[in-house]
Amino acid sequence: MFKRFFLLAVSFFLMTSINTINANDHNAGDPAKGKKVFKKCAACHSIAEGAKHKTGPNLWNIYGNKAAAAEGYKYSNWLKGSGIEWNDENLAAWISPKKVKNEKFGKEVKKSKMIFSGLRKPAQIEDVIAYIKTLK
Ligand code: HEC
């Protein structure tokens, strides 16, 4: 009786941990794929440490930091006053199509200087964020 219960407990544990691993895989995104997606951002953004700002600021070490913190870049007043912290949720909304962006940051977000129509595929958003996270 105890043995059966034990086996049941072990298999339940295995099942739940496998599920968690799968869920994490799905949410984590793939940095290698994200590097390719970043080509869409690279028209305006460098991301290597110490690289020059382009139309947009250098994005080295952006993850987990406050918005508008890169030195030597002239940000919009909107972004400077936004108080945004670049976590998963905010980054995802920032690079999403207008509707999602507005829902997250409000319509005033159009006063920011980043003119980008947004990535439509959720997987691409996850992948590019995974890539950005590696650069710190
Ligand atoms: C057409 C040019 C352009 C493209 C393409 C572009 N951006 Fe931007 N981005 C900007 C500009 C300009 C700003 C500065 C916004 C401001 O000051 O309001 C900015 C700001 C940002 C910021 C905030 C930086 C900070 O220091 O707070 C992040 C994060 C960002 N962009 C990520 C991305 C990602 C990721 C992509 C690709 C999916 C992308 N951008 C595509 C021009 C662009």
As a percent range, the share of strand residues is under 5%
Instruction: State the separation between the terminal residues, measured CA to CA.
Output: 53 Å
What's the total count of β strands? 0
Compute the average pLDDT.
89
Q: Please give the share of residues in helix.
A: 40-55%
Q: C-alpha Rg, in Å?
A: 20 Å
Mind summarizing the main beta sheet? none
Bound molecules: heme C
Tell me, briefly, the overall form: globular
The low-pLDDT segments are 18-25
Can you say what the CATH homologous superfamily is?
Answer: Cytochrome c-like domain
- H-E order: HHHHHHH
- What is the total domain count? 1
| Protein structure class | mainly alpha
Characterization of this structure:
The chain has 136 residues and is an all-alpha fold. The protein has a single domain, classed as Orthogonal Bundle (Cytochrome Bc1 Complex, Chain D, domain 2), CATH 1.10.760.10. It is 51% helix and 0% strand. Helix 2 crosses helix 7. The radius of gyration is 20 Å and the shape is globular.
Précis, in short:
This protein has 136 residues and is mostly helical. 51% of the residues lie in helices and 0% in strands. It has a single domain, classed as Cytochrome c-like domain (Cytochrome Bc1 Complex, Chain D, domain 2).
Please specify the SSE layout and strand pairing.
Layout: H1 2-28, H2 31-37, H3 39-42, H4 77-80, H5 88-94, H6 98-105, H7 122-134
Helix pairs in contact: 2-7
